[in-house]
Design a protein that fits this description.
Elements: E1 14-15, E2 18-19, E3 67-72, H1 78-88, E4 97-99, H2 100-103, H3 110-119, E5 121-128, H4 130-133, H5 136-148, E6 154-159, E7 177-178, H6 183-208
Parallel strand pairs: 3-4, 3-5, 5-6, 6-7
Antiparallel strand pairs: 1-2
């Protein structure tokens, strides 16, 4: 795990229209910029995918949102959230994640920041722990994610040190991934799930074009 877990809250370097590093920055840094469109309502032109990355990460569908995964978590569970983000944003995987402590606008209203983060992400990963269940803003994140899906947003519930009986009733129709016993295996499942979702989106877009 130490091979891909980077120092906490270090600003990642940015390439053209792509965040390629897995390091973490403070909350003072604003969210990544959405790639511009050439015409109103049109998908942005897709930057070339880096060598070795799945082709779908170079697609216009992929770049139609600022982030691939909005990671929702309790502030108490920031270490676990950083582990997940560091894994997904590793240059060998190439995903873009929203992490509130790093990407939210300084001084912005929490409700507004959460709404914008969910709306500008392909997927929402809910890191559900006992701390998550005690946080009112985390419950708000659940309902915001549900309000955007399931048709337009992929919701990925992740449980950590949580019993089945504690699983939120609002998510009863969503199968969760348990990170408690083997976190890295769970991170791999999240990565594959996001890629499959993007591939399905590209396929559906091709079918209607």
């Amino acid at each position: 795990m130490s091979g891909w877990l980077n120092p906490l809250f270090v600003k990642p370097k940015k390439e053209t229209a792509q965040r390629s590093s897995s390091q973490i920055e403070p909350a003072a840094t604003s969210a990544a910029t959405t790639p511009s469109t050439s015409a109103e309502g049109a998908l942005p032109s897709a930057p070339n995918s880096s060598p070795g990355l799945p082709p779908v990460l170079g697609s216009a569908i992929h770049w139609s949102q600022t982030y691939d995964v909005c990671v929702c978590h309790s502030p108490v569970d920031i270490k676990e959230a950083i582990c997940l983000v560091s894994y997904l944003e590793n240059p060998s995987r190439g995903l873009r994640c929203f992490l509130q402590h790093r990407d939210a606008n300084l001084g912005g209203a929490i409700a507004t920041e959460i709404c914008q983060a969910v709306q500008s992400s392909h997927c929402c990963a809910l890191l559900i722990t006992p701390n998550f269940l005690l946080d009112d803003w985390c419950h708000y994140m659940i309902h915001q994610a549900l309000s955007e899906g399931p048709m337009s947003k992929l919701i990925i519930p992740l449980v950590f040190n949580l019993s089945h009986a504690q699983y939120p009733h609002a998510l009863r129709f969503y199968h969760y991934k348990d990170l408690s016993k083997n976190p890295e295996r769970g991170y791999t499942q999240v990565y594959k799930t996001v890629l499959k979702y993007l591939e399905d989106m590209v396929e559906k877009s091709s079918a209607f074009s």
